[in-house]
Amino acid sequence: MEIVLSGIRSTGKLHLGNYYGALLNFVQMQHEHKCFFFIADYHSLTTHPTPTDLHGSVKQVLAEYLACGLDPEIATLYVQSDLPQVPELYLLLNMNAYVGELERCTSFKEKIRKHPDNINAGLLTYPTLMAADILIHKATMVPVGKDQEQHLEMTRTFANRFNRLYKVDYFPEPVAYNFGKELVKIPGLDGSGKMGKSEGNAIYLYDDPKTIRSKVMKAVTDSGPTQPNQEKSEPVKNLFTLMRVVSDPETYSYFEEQYSSCHIRYGDMKKQLAEDIIRITTPIRERIEEILANDAYLSQVAHHGAEKARESASKTINEVRQIIGFRNF
Ligand code: TYM
Which of 246, 21, 242, 43 is nearest to 146 (CA)? Predict the structure, then answer.
């Protein structure tokens, strides 16, 4: 049995990228492995949310996990800041994480390019906090999207470095995991890059049908193919990628064929895509609403999860302290 762990930042509602990149894989794995799933609220502090927003987002994301099918009786479902062992391991790992390697991390470089006025140390050490999340439970499989591949590579580096430094074989090497073998990248609706919370190009699980239709109909396309089997432009490729994920294979093939033979009408394709997304998100949105209205249940889930997660985390941190040489007087 593997130890599986994944998490999502509590920076707002979950979008289709989070769902297909991480959550759905996790939901499918929870019955077969020892699974931990958490809400990364420390990570969300890099963007300085207000206290009300911070708590509101954690509650929303917790309700969304449950609505997507995470079973808190089977998997361990918790909030990152409920485990004091995580920041402790983060501190210890930071002693062996080099500034140069952190500065070379793609996600850090991207953040400083986009937000040059907020280059804080939390952003620089984001990968060590993520490594602490994973190593605190000695997880071996981490269901994530393609954008997290490099963070996983860094986690392996930190784990191996710890083992070498203290001449132990303590931390396992975690691998990024997707059910379909390939890590996925769900594109946004703006014609470039990936779907993301901060990009303004996302469809959220909590969006109502009207919002979804309007977002999809506005998705960027091009003026259409002019010759058979023409190479697709980036925005059109993205639309097809989304369709492959949410629609039936027959629907996907139909529009592929329409494209190849230059008969495609993007308006029709978008209408179909929007309806297929709505079919998937509507039951989830209804469950989110139900769960959000039940504070007592959310609180019970968070307490129960924190207790289970602390048990595993405190075992690891005690062993790590012994390995490093902390001794009680
Ligand atoms: P976050 O909150 O940006 O995203 C959460 C998960 O969703 C995946 N994802 C995507 N997958 C495919 N296509 C997309 N467009 C897309 N957008 C997001 C991400 O790959 C991720 O799996 N650092 C993490 C949170 C985290 C974590 C961890 C994850 C903190 N500690 C430990 C795993 C293990 C993050 O910011 O994800």
Answer: 21
Q: Which one-letter amino acid corresponds to residue 318?
A: N
Q: How far is CA 33 from the centre of its chain?
A: 19
> In angstroms, what is the span from residue 142 Cα to ligand 1's centroid?
10
Specify the CATH architecture of the domain 209-289.
Orthogonal Bundle (1.10)
Q: Are 13 and 206 in contact (CB under 8 A)?
A: yes
pLDDT tens by residue, 197-217: 877 899 999 999 999 999 999
pLDDT in tens, 250-285: 999 999 999 999 999 999 999 999 999 999 999 999
Alpha-carbon distance of 213 to 216, in angstroms, equals 5
Q: Candidates 3.40.50.2000, 3.40.50.620, 3.40.1650.10, 3.30.450.40; correct CATH number of 3-184+294-324?
A: 3.40.50.620
Fill in the DSSP letter of residue 32.
T
Return the best residue to mutate from 60, 62, 148 for the ligand 1 pocket (most ligand atoms within 8 A of CB). 148
How far apart are the C-alpha atoms of 301 and 118, rounded to whole Å?
34
DSSP H helices in 47-138? 51-67, 85-94, 99-103, 106-114, 121-124, 126-135
Q: What is the atom index within ligand 1 of the atom nearest the CA of 134?
A: 32
The answer to whether residues 95 and 322 touch, using CB atoms and an 8 Å cutoff, is: no
Distance from the alpha carbon of residue 7 to the mean position of ligand 1, in angstroms: 7
What are the residue ranges spanned by the domains of the chain?
3-184+294-324, 209-289
pTM above 0.90, yes or no: yes
Q: Is 197 a catalytic residue?
A: yes
Query: Is 218 a known active-site residue?
Result: no
